[in-house]
Amino acid sequence: MQPELFNLIEQIHALPHKVVLSTAGAGTQALSDLLAVGGASNTLVEARVPYAQVAFDDFVGHSPEKYVSGHAARLLAGSAFERAFKLTGQYPNFENLIGLACSAAISTTKPKRGDHRAYIVTWQFSRISQTYIKLDKGARTRVEEEELISRIMLNMLAEACGLEQQLVLDLTKQDEVVESVIDHTDDIDELLLGNSQFVGIYAHGKTKKAGINPQVLFPGSFNPLHEGHLELAKVAEQILGKPVAFEVSATNVDKPALPTDVLLKRVSQFAGHHPIYVTTAPTFLDKARLFSDTTFVIGFDTAERILMPKYYSNSESEMLDALSEIQERNCGFLVAGRKGKDGVYDSPESLQAPTGFESLFMPIPDGLFRRDISSTELRKKLAV
Q1: What distances in angstroms separate CA 158 from CA 8, 33, 235, one per listed residue?
Q2: Bridge-partner residues for 217, per DSSP?
Q3: Which residues contact 383 (CB under 8 A, 6 or more apart)?
Q4: Which residue from 167, 248, 275, 343 has the least number of CB within 10 angstroms?
Q5: Whole-number Cα distances in Å, 21 to 81, 157, 241, 266, 294
Q6: Which strand (E) or helix (H) includes residue 340?
Q7: What is the CATH number of the domain that holds 330?
Q8: Does residue 57 sit in the same domain as residue 142?
Q9: Could you give the CA distance from residue 367 to residue 370 in angstroms, rounded to a whole number?
Q10: Residue ranges of the chain with pLDDT lower than 50?
Q11: What is the reported pLDDT for 322?
Q12: Do 21 and 151 reside in the same domain of the chain?
């Protein structure tokens, strides 16, 4: 191994960062190099090589339109990041977690009609960095193309770890390299400053701040995101026949506002798999005004609060006016049962809505969904 390569990897292993690597088409040399230097267990949590399409689909949860693309590489990196925090149990301390991924098409036994190219991505809790390289076709052997792509991966990993040292890349004049960054911090800061009404962060990491309206929205604090949330989202999709997106509000009726770093950590849990909207809509009336024609997925306890006058300045008429406007905006609620603080399970069938608003609340039959998971208890376990 070249001294500069050994030295860089040794520096990476000395840092506290934890990495899950996922690569398809090229990039396994980077894995081999990381493992060849002592201390790899300090850095590498897991490595995945979803080479076949079925393995790729299983890792990210669905089939991308193209398997060699920036979109696909970001899905791999996001899923790798999600694996990193799931396996390390570092919630909510995501600062040192990195998803490193590559999606590539390089020289093989049969001549390729398309470009030889690679998309390499590092996914961190607030930042996604991507390098695209279109290789000088025919200028290198497969082994040489693999080596170049792997060195780019290691450079990007080093940068994500905060290192300034970079490996020298043997590029030709015909190689094309394009670097880009998605910074979620800027988007959320702009939201909190009041310059946008929402930030939609998609599974592939890109964002939208206007011109889109989710059909089904699952609001929550997701502190942390757990299996009960994900199972409920699947059930909601089955019942409604529409995709479910998640939502976290920076401002809440009965809780302090969430700062940028906390919001970034909450939304990071959805990396690579689910879209999530960050809003400043604390009430469901605010959410309905922001997203008309939307069904909100909620638990029984939330449904009860929606029907409590105390959340409407202790005014029943204000509560009824709010329900009326939500109804007029063609919004509604899909309600799941939940075990209360008293340990008694509350079935959504038992919810008492005011006359004329019964159809606003659609119950999920207990036979389709019931998970008695406490986020508070999970936070206590994760803190141990």
Answers
A1: 8, 13, 41
A2: 245, 296
A3: none
A4: 343
A5: 9, 10, 34, 22, 37
A6: none
A7: 3.40.50.620
A8: yes
A9: 7
A10: 378-379, 384
A11: 98
A12: yes
- Angle 221-87-30 from CA coordinates, rounded to 5°: 120
**116: in domain:** yes
**CA neighbours closer than 13 Å in the CB half-sphere of residue 104:** 33
Indicate the residue type of 139: A
pLDDT (tens digit, 9 = 90+) per residue, 23-66? 999 999 999 999 999 999 999 999 999 999 999 999 999 899 99
Nearest to 189 by CA among 279, 260, 125: 260
Query: What is the total count of domains within the chain?
Result: 2
| CA-based end-to-end distance of the chain | 41
Residues 274 and 246 sit within 8 Å (Cβ to Cβ): yes
Q: What is the pTM of this model?
A: 0.90
Residue 195 sits in which domain range?
A: 184-383
How does DSSP classify residue 384? -
Shared domain for 169 and 243, answered yes or no, is no
- 167 φ/ψ sector (left φ>0, alpha ψ -120 to 50, else beta): beta
Query: ω before 224 within 30° of 0 (cis)?
Result: yes
Domain annotation covers residue 61: yes
Task: Identify the domain boundary among 148, 174, 200.
Answer: 174
Whether 166 and 268 share a structural domain: no
132 and 24 in a common domain: yes
DSSP state letters, 197-236: SEEEE-TTS-EESSS---SEEEE---TT--HHHHHHHHHH
